[in-house]
Amino acid sequence: MQGTCHCGAVELDVTLSDGFATARRCDCSFCRRRGAIAVSAPLSGIRVVRGADKLTLYQWGARTAKHYFCSICGIYTHHQRRSNPQEFGVNVAILEGVNPRDLGEVPWADGVNHPADRGRLA
Ligand SMILES: [Zn+2]
Q: 67: CA distance to ligand 1 center in Å?
């Protein structure tokens, strides 16, 4: 699938792990603010077609996860997961032809009680 940020500076070629079956929201302190629905892709499933130099990296907390977003329009495109660093989470809303509304009810991941977070602010 093709994925683009809002301004079009960043374009990704995306192959999902299991279609939209992996779609999740997350309530950790970062995701609850970001508000995006993410789907899984293997590390080999994302190729930056355009705008690699426009992608900005945000890290916080344990600094394991890598959250990428467009430095021009601010749209979150994808992130390398902390729960599974062999995987990317992809913002479903950047995928061409996908309206997140069509996904209906999306399960929540328990980001507040992340197993890697015991004793730390999630
Ligand atoms: Zn952009």
A: 15
pLDDT digits (tens, 9 = 90+) for 7-18: 999 999 999 999
Which tens digit of pLDDT belongs to each residue from 61-84?
888 899 999 999 999 999 999 888
CATH class of 2-105: mainly beta
Q: What six digits make up the tokens of 51? A: 């705008």
Cα of 89 vs centre of ligand 1, distance in Å, is 18
What is the Å distance from ligand 1's center to 102 Cα?
Answer: 23
9: DSSP letter:
S
Q: What tokens appear for 37 in the block?
A: 């629905």
pTM of the shown model: 0.90
Cα–Cα distance between 31 and 53 in angstroms, integer? 24
